[in-house]
Specification:
The chain is of the alpha/beta class. The chain folds into two domains: 152 residues, SPOUT methyltransferase, trefoil knot domain (Alpha/beta knot); 74 residues, Trp Operon Repressor, Chain A, CATH 1.10.1270.20. The chain has ten helices and nine strands. The strands form three sheets. Strands 2-1-6-5-7 form a five-stranded parallel β-sheet. It has a two-stranded antiparallel ribbon with strand order 3-4. β8 and β9 form a beta hairpin. Bound molecules: ligand 9D3. Ligand 9D3 binds next to β5.
Length: 244
């Protein structure tokens, strides 16, 4: 998969993406990441990428032409299923299913804004979709672009190891994670639950499902209401509510 990011801070995007899972995926040529700086597509002496808003008001607006030319450059050799996404507070909120769908595309061009926003004509003519992280304010689109790249990359084949298919295919989909423990067995009298030391894998996976259901019920009941539980899951959740 090909990612292109239109950004005034290309080094921020490349640095962050070079770490961890995304960095490995780039090294292994499973994804490519190219950054395009609108400043490189200016023609004036001062490399002007922003200007004052018509009608007056606070702050600056990113100019149409450098953004447009940067996107055109990123679109060279693009396949028909390439999408241009503007990361913005006005967008539809990013969800796992949105990322899942996007992971089927061959190319995603992510536009990271700065200042108060972009000239509306660029959004209308050049962008296919507008995506948001949620209803809070951050300073620019770069971190949002990185979240999209990270979230999609870990869905691609051969990026995560065995964990992936196991975790993603599993019934635990749409639930919070069960609690995890590693050595030592006891820390200040806090012991690891016995069942996890039992070696009984059927028992362990039932306990984990019960914990995942129980924690989701306690912390995120909204997620449970969206899900249909199997008879077994209903039984485990009832058990959790009784005891734990
Ligand atoms: C809503 C705040 N705006 C009121 C005048 C000004 C403004 C602040 C920060 C406009 C844009 C930004 C930069 N934000 C993003 O680029 C952004 C974002 C966000 O702020 N919240 C959630 N998701 C995203 S995706 C990109």
């Amino acid at each position: 998969m090909r990612f292109d990011v239109i950004t005034l801070f290309p080094e921020m995007v490349l640095q962050a993406a070079s770490c961890g899972v995304t960095g490995k995926a780039i090294e292994n040529d499973i994804v490519s990441l190219t950054v395009w700086n609108p400043r490189d597509y200016t023609h004036d002496k001062h490399k002007t990428v922003d200007d004052r808003p018509f009608g007056g008001g606070q702050g600056m607006v990113m100019k149409y032409q450098p953004l447009h030319d940067a996107v055109m450059a990123a679109k060279v050799d693009a396949k028909p299923d390439c999408k241009v996404v503007y990361l913005s507070p006005q967008g539809k909120q990013i969800t796992q299913s949105l990322l899942q769908e996007a992971s089927e595309l061959s190319q995603l061009i992510l536009v990271a804004g700065r200042y108060e926003g972009l000239d509306e004509r660029f959004i209308q003519r050049d962008c296919d979709e507008e995506w948001s992280l949620g209803d809070y304010v951050i300073s620019g689109g770069e971190l949002a672009a990185l979240i999209v790249i990270d979230g999609i990359t870990r869905l691609l084949p051969n990026v995560l190891g065995n964990e992936q298919s196991a975790l993603q295919d599993s019934h635990s989909d749409g639930l919070l994670d069960y609690p995890q423990f590693t050595r030592p067995e006891v820390i200040d009298e806090m012991a690891v639950p016995d069942v996890l030391l039992s070696g009984n894998h059927a028992l362990i996976s039932r306990w984990r499902m019960k914990q995942a259901l129980g924690r989701t019920w306690q912390k995120r009941p909204d997620l449970l209401n969206k899900k249909t539980l199997s008879a077994e899951q209903e039984r485990l959740l009832a058990q959790f509510k009784e005891v734990d």
